[in-house]
Amino acid sequence: MFSRKRACSLPVIAVECADRTQSAIKKVALAHTVLMIAPTSFFADYGNHIRIWQEAQALKKRGHRIVIATYHNGDDMPGLEIRRSWDVPWLKRAMVGSSRHKIYLDIALSWRALETALRIRPTIIHAHIHEGALIGAVLKRVLDVPLVFDFQGSLTSEMLDHGFLHKRSPLYHPLWHLERWINTQADALITSSYNAAQLLQRDFAFPPERLHTVADGINTERFRPFDGSAAWQAERLRIRADLGVPEGRRIVVYLGVLAPYQGIDVLMEAARCVLAAQPNTHFLIMGYPGVDRYQALAESLGIADHVTLPGRILFRDAHAYLALGDLAVAPKMSETEGSGKIPNYMAMGLPVVTFDTPVSREYLGDLGIYAALGSAEDLAAKIGQGLEQREWAMRLGQLGRQKAVRDLSSDRSGPEIEAIYAAAVQERRRVARAPAPQDEPERVVER
Known about the structure:
Strand order of the largest sheet: 3-2-1-4-5-6-7
Oligomer: single chain
Order of helices and strands: HEHEEHEHEHHEHEHEHEHEHEHEHEHHH
Number of strands: 13
Largest sheet: 7 strands, parallel
Low-confidence stretches: 1-9, 24-28
Radius of gyration: 22 Å
Number of helices: 16
């Protein structure tokens, strides 16, 4: 077997990706017709849906036509062209994470994506998630157009995180090789973090010249700290009363998917420890699915009267609910996926307690309150520290807000993605001109 390619350090990858993107931004961008392939129940107010929506909005503002091919279910978003796959009457809930249902849903989406592509004749295929990139790999050959892959985490790592796959499974190695092949089909690949770029180079030997990073952005005008105005204070009091949060309690907020890989089980254990020491605390844990499961867990831990699980919060209302918080938590357990909730927290000026992972540090730097990965005891200790040391925590939140405004505004993503489209067009032309490669053994990355 060939030896593993030596990975560059994270700062070096960050500089290389940023330099390539900035140099390409200087070139004049042409208006594109973009087929976005989103193998998910778009729109459903969480995670990668928000990234897809923000990217589509940013590109539309710059004059590009964006058409999104997605599953049959999900909310239609104003101003977006959405083409949905065949209706599946027995499945109306939003699909979150890995599921066997996705096999036939992706087949239906493949047909809709092909039909849409033949109608609109896109100049760019922009695929999200590995299933979308697999569909896109076929369409780029049919239409002879560049494929841009928006990588939102390792396919096999996500399956492991979600408990859908085990490393001992006979399917693991075939799926890993399929993932590697899908990655290589992209003329340009976008990650949401430099940590993911490092993973692609280290574990999949992905060529760095086709690798770009566009961090999750945030609307810092909508997501902003409580300004003390009478109107906003009245809204805060109304929402708090609707949720049934007693007066006088300090609120720890979470907004995202409710699942073990997001660290919600660990968060519940940590909440029990925090409440034993600081009973004037309340945990507002927002999102879905799994509300009933975690309500039952809160009751079994004896903390149900200090935990509120309101379920799905519409993205348009997310800032108003986050504004109730004194401190935010992002206890995601995955070390390979992004964490788009952290920019939201930062823009709100909230101090952030999170597990110590490369992605968390990439967003927060020295401004995070870090707990040892997977430790409920340490997570509880850090939440308690943030609640006790108010001035210190508030200062971290203020500096996080400044960093979000400076580095994470959603306005910057449009020009960056345009530059990546230009790079993908050039790569497609280069491949078309290149002579046919000689047969040689495939490079193997040791697993």
